[in-house]
Specification:
InterPro entries: At4g27190-like_LRR, LRR_dom_sf, Plant_NBS-LRR. The protein has 14 helices and 21 strands. The longest helix has 17 residues.
Length: about 575
């Protein structure tokens, strides 16, 4: 410290004093941390500053006050024109709640300032907190020559990662995970390059989060963590080990603090940007969210929407080679802390693909699930055995389910009238044995916007009436788009006993639906709205049945249909003799 002051004041003649004292201390076996100030150097510093007007900024390295007069700094009183601004620790940002205890120890400080950033008008927000950490990262880089060409964002991420370990795991496991953060920085790819070990070692000495747990929670409770738990498990039973840490947040009503990406598969998973060979030639790589199947048939796929692959906070993916899967999905036993419980109670995204199991997904209480994607599960008969609890579901994307007869089964003894109230998109393709999509027992789907159904040869209806809760009509007030391609058995979207109302329709595209007899009624549509456009084969349009203008169900309420050139395949003119 004294040497740094002398260098800042450009007292070059003191270098000899330091060299002489260093030689003496080395001879006496004193390490650097045990060496005291040099009185002769203190005299030179005092002589230089005594009659000067100056301000000193001192970043302290502890919670204790330091008497800088021992280094030669003239005593600072309220009558002098000299000032010193200093902070506890080595950083400008500290997180402590015991401000009064710190203030009681001060002897030389005339004014103690602190800020309450966790409540009231000065409550810190996410961008401000990240800016503070970003500034700290820049300070760390400036102190280390090995980091001068390093991106500040990388160091900031290391700081936040260390904070995440300190905040999320210590209170749960009582283990000092943060002490091993330098290993995680490299393993998780935050630090990369030729100097990764040198940088990791330097950062490990710099980054120390020492803060009160209760205060830290209040600072971070509204901030989305930068990192999430990513686990790839070959055996579904291993998901039980993740439940205690996740449940510790969920049980305290803090599921918003939980972020995870869990993949159950024994096959390597990689992203679009990665490309590597499997360990064994007989194993096929599981391309993350990749769709390797094309559509069967002549209908073009331009209009079929792509499935969402990003933006999930709590995602579970189940793929081929998943061991122990059936035992983890069977039954409705809340006391079993297994994969089924984790998905039902926490997951907001589910991607089930390329599995050979015939066991359905666990029933009931999928209260957080927003996005559901199921594809290439050749033995599934029904995906979900019940309709209870899908209160947040927004998107359903089902494809290539060769044996499935329904996505949701009917006759569920448990009902909840808020289920499917958030449903916006239904996408279905290549499910040749599917008879229906969803049993209707609610009087309205207030947010449903799009229906895309392609290549489902046995599909009779998209929505069927549940006998336990019959409905006279089903309203779709926000349904704007209907695309139906190659559904030769489809009679109408809703079962015959129900009247489908869709006053907001804008686009209808229909091809290869030769048995279709009814389109939705538009009762309640304002006269100011433009008529919906229709693309449909002339044979199908001419065969449609109508209820009349007064019922909002008449050809005049649609634009003149555009008849495509897609017609039934030509049949042989005569019989074929064997």
């Amino acid at each position: 410290m004294q040497r740094a002051i002398a260098m800042a004041l450009k007292l070059d003649h003191t270098k000899i004093m330091f060299s002489t004292q260093d030689e003496e201390d080395d001879f006496n076996g004193l390490d650097e941390h045990s060496r005291d100030v040099i009185p002769s150097v203190a005299t030179e510093i005092d002589r230089t500053l005594r009659d000067c007007r100056f301000m000193m900024i001192f970043l302290n390295g502890s919670d204790d006050e330091v008497d800088v007069t021992r280094f030669g700094i003239p005593q600072m009183t309220e009558f002098r024109n000299n000032r010193m601004i200093w902070t506890f620790k080595r950083r400008l940002l500290t997180i402590h709640s015991h401000r009064s205890r710190i203030a009681e120890k001060l002897r030389y400080t005339h004014l103690f300032l602190s800020a309450a950033l966790v409540h009231g008008e000065y409550q810190i927000n996410e961008s401000q907190f990240c800016a503070l950490v970003h500034g700290e990262a820049a300070t760390i880089i400036a102190r280390h020559p090995c980091m001068l060409d390093i991106d500040t964002t990388m160091v900031r991420d290391c700081c936040l990662f260390d904070l995440s370990l300190h905040y999320n795991f210590h209170s749960t496991t009582r283990l000092s995970w943060a002490a091993r953060s330098n290993n995680f920085w490299i393993c998780d790819g935050i630090i990369q390059g030729d100097k990764e070990m040198e940088i990791s070692k330097a950062l490990h000495q710099e980054i120390r989060w020492e803060c009160d747990a209760s205060l830290l929670h209040r600072v971070l409770e509204k901030l989305k963590p930068t990192f999430l738990v990513h686990a790839t498990l070959s055996d579904a039973r291993l998901a039980r080990t993740l439940w205690p840490a996740i449940d510790s947040y969920r049980s305290r009503g803090r599921l918003v603090d939980v972020y995870f990406n869990i993949n159950i598969t024994s096959v390597p998973v990689y992203s679009e940007e990665e490309d590597f060979q499997p360990a064994a030639t007989h194993r096929v790589l599981a391309k993350h969210y990749g769709d390797i199947h094309g559509m069967v048939g002549d209908v073009p796929m331009q209009d079929f929407p792509e499935a969402l692959t990003t933006g999930f906070d709590r995602h579970v993916g189940i793929a081929q080679g998943s061991r122990g899967l059936e035992s983890e999905l069977l039954g409705y036993i809340p006391t079993r802390n297994n994969l089924a419980l984790l998905m039902r109670r926490c997951a907001d995204s589910l991607h089930l693909h390329d599995v050979s199991t015939s066991v359905n997904m666990p029933m009931n209480e999928w209260n957080y699930l927003k996005h559901c994607r199921v594809e290439r599960c050749t033995r599934l008969d029904t995906v979900f055995p019940g309709t209870y609890g899908f209160e947040a579901l927004e998107t359903v994307w089902a494809s290539d389910l060769l044996m499935a007869r329904s996505i949701w089964s009917k006759g569920d003894p448990y009902y909840h009238y808020s289920s499917f109230r958030e449903l916006r998109h239904l996408n279905l393709r290549s499910c040749p044995r599917l008879r229906f999509m969803l049993p209707v027992w609610a009087s309205s789907f207030p947010r449903l916007e799009t229906l895309h159904m392609i290549d489902c040869g046995d599909l009779r209806h998209v929505f069927i009436m549940d006998k336990e809760h019959p409905e006279v009509h089903v309203a779709f007030p926000n349904l704007t788009t209907i695309h139906l391609h190659n559904l030769p058995m489809l009679r109408q979207i809703c079962e015959a006993q129900m009247r489908m109302l869709a006053p907001a329709l804008m686009t209808i595209k229909i091809r290869g639906c030769w048995d279709l007899r009814r389109l939705p009624a538009m009762e309640g549509r304002g006269i100011q709205h433009k008529k919906p456009t229709v693309e449909i084969e002339k044979d199908v349009w001419d065969a449609l049945e109508w209820d009349g203008v007064e019922a909002g169900h008449h050809p005049s309420l649609f634009e003149e249909p555009r008849h495509s050139h897609f017609y039934k395949k030509k049949l042989l003119r005569g019989s074929v003799l064997g």
